[in-house]
Design goal:
It is built from five helices and four strands. The chain is α+β, with helices and mostly antiparallel strands. A hairpin with a 4-residue loop joins β3 and β4. The longest helix is centred in the N-terminal third of the chain and has 22 residues. The two termini are about 35 Å apart.
């Protein structure tokens, strides 16, 4: 999985442990992880690409959907962390691009949208 990091989680975790029922926090983490997975999968609906085929030249290749299907959700840190990402090894090439192909971000846009919702959900729980 690629490297996206959210800063400030240690301070947030310390405050949450001090002020709340951790089962509620774990539920929020799980719910937001699942929503992030759905959004990343939705963003991973590609239209296909062109590639050079020896003897045939430039050919259009239809998408297989393997990358979308490989985007999974796992729980870590006793339910305090949700990890979302593809299991296909070429997922990072699609996300960030290469010198031969443009980036087709599918994780970062989903994360950018979901992190606001996650923050709001945690703030509601902390009140």
């Amino acid at each position: 999985m690629g490297g996206l990091k959210v800063n400030g989680l240690d301070q947030l975790s310390a405050k949450l442990k001090k002020n709340m029922n951790m089962n509620v926090v774990k539920t929020v983490v799980k719910k937001n992880g699942a929503e992030l997975q759905k959004k990343a999968q939705k963003n991973a609906e590609f239209k296909g690409h062109y590639e050079w085929v020896k003897g045939k030249g430039l050919q259009f290749v239809n998408p297989t959907g393997e990358l979308k299907r490989s985007i999974g959700l796992s729980s870590r840190d006793n339910g305090m962390t949700a990890a979302v990402g593809p299991t296909k090894d070429y997922g990072e090439y699609v996300e960030y691009g290469t010198r031969f192909m443009e980036a087709q971000p599918y994780i970062k846009p989903a994360l950018d949208e979901q992190k606001r919702i996650f923050k709001n959900d945690l703030e509601k729980v902390m009140r």
